[in-house]
């Protein structure tokens, strides 16, 4: 397989956090580590399959840490790595921009009356 070539740093960052759910997973984990079931409840609308896939990709990229807690029943806890914390800090201004402009975004996306 050919090695991935990025055009710029933004291209690399989007490759890691691209999609609807990865930024939301990072947002949920920035407060504290979470078990899978807690993440699933905090992200309404995400399917179990998609959450598993997104977490696997974030773990693969070194942004999220997966720890199996030996107990009965076994638990899996997800947390941000140091790299994930730095990515979360980088995404914070984007979230602030979204908060400031949410009303505008919703307004321009309203369907026109028939």
CATH hierarchy: architecture = Orthogonal Bundle
User: CATH superfamily, please?
Assistant: Winged helix-like DNA-binding domain superfamily/Winged helix DNA-binding domain
The count of DSSP E runs of length 2 or more, i.e. the number of strands, is 3
H and E string: HHEHHEEH
The percent range for helix content is 55-70%
Question: What is the rounded distance between the termini?
Answer: 51 Å
Level-1 CATH class name: Mainly Alpha
**Integer average pLDDT:** 91
Percent strand equals: 5-15%
Structural class label: alpha+beta
DSSP summary: helix tally? 5
Please indicate the count of domains.
1
Specify the overall morphology.
Answer: globular
- Largest sheet: number of strands, sense, barrel closure: 3 strands, antiparallel
CATH topology: Arc Repressor Mutant, subunit A
Radius of gyration (CA) equals 17 Å
- Given as residue ranges, the uncertain stretches (5+ residues, pLDDT < 50) are none
Reading side by side through the largest sheet, how are the strands ordered? Answer: 1-3-2
